[in-house]
């Protein structure tokens, strides 16, 4: 394409005008809500997460030459840099969601406070991740070492991003938590909403196709396999026919539960402690502790219900 006006009559200027016209309402809304500030940068947020990974697992990513003597310097310098970068992205996220029409005096100090609160939670995030890594090593006979699970396992990458995103979600940070989790989703095929509550020693084996909804609650020492869905059975609507936000609608999975590949569990049901859900099971009811349910058992239940037995 040599010029905006080629011999065949193609006019690039018309395309530009039509695109700009379609963008105008969006830009007007942004001008009202963003206080003249730019939107959050997805690239910058992903960069922050990757930097956080080097703090949570020093020596494993990027800076492999770290020693015990240099660790404190590396962690301190990295956190100082992360803090400044994160505060800027949090401020942009707050401005994105701000309802104040005109200059806002709250987004900047809120971003600074939220950044400090988030950084204060990193030791607990690291403790939880340590339990997840141990669960991955102990739960997979193919794992040679815990180091291998940190380097290679998609489930460990996904739960790392999730635990970071969940802390931001708990702080009511808009937009940024979804960017963090969707980054892991795009890499691993594991889709965990940042609102999901997940206990320690959580292990996703293989991982591809796992979906964990916003209001899911998962206990301790839970193991799930590829293709598992913890989803909603239905979406209650308001008077205008729009989905009602924030209501509990996903499963509660208690401690020590194993859910095998392809299982789908829908609705606000409770899977009792120590239960085992077989592969490809479709489940929309609660189970008492210690239950064992297979695809054949669920087919038999459907048959008996259909026969009126």
In short:
The protein contains 9 helices and 14 strands. With 309 residues, the protein is an alpha/beta fold.
What does this structure look like?
- It is a single chain.
- With 309 residues, the chain is of the alpha/beta class.
- The chain has two domains: 28-189, serine acetyltransferase, domain 1; 196-309, UDP N-Acetylglucosamine Acyltransferase, domain 1.
- 47% of the residues lie in helices and 10% in strands.
- It has helices at 12-33, 42-56, 71-97, 107-120, 122-139, 146-152, 154-170, 176-188, 295-306, and strands spanning 191-192, 197-198, 203-205, 211-212, 217-218, 223-225, 229-231, 252-253, 258-259, 264-266, 270-271, 276-277, 282-283, 292-293.
- The protein has a five-stranded parallel sheet with strand order 1-4-7-10-13. Strands 3-6-9-12-14 form a five-stranded parallel sheet. A four-stranded parallel sheet has the order 2-5-8-11, with no helix packed on it.
- Helix 3 runs antiparallel to helix 4 and helix 5 packs antiparallel against helix 7.
- The model is unreliable at 302-309 (pLDDT under 50).
Topology readout:
Layout: H1 12-33, H2 42-56, H3 71-97, H4 107-120, H5 122-139, H6 146-152, H7 154-170, H8 176-188, E1 191-192, E2 197-198, E3 203-205, E4 211-212, E5 217-218, E6 223-225, E7 229-231, E8 252-253, E9 258-259, E10 264-266, E11 270-271, E12 276-277, E13 282-283, E14 292-293, H9 295-306
Parallel strand pairs: 1-4, 2-5, 3-6, 4-7, 5-8, 6-9, 7-10, 8-11, 9-12, 10-13, 12-14
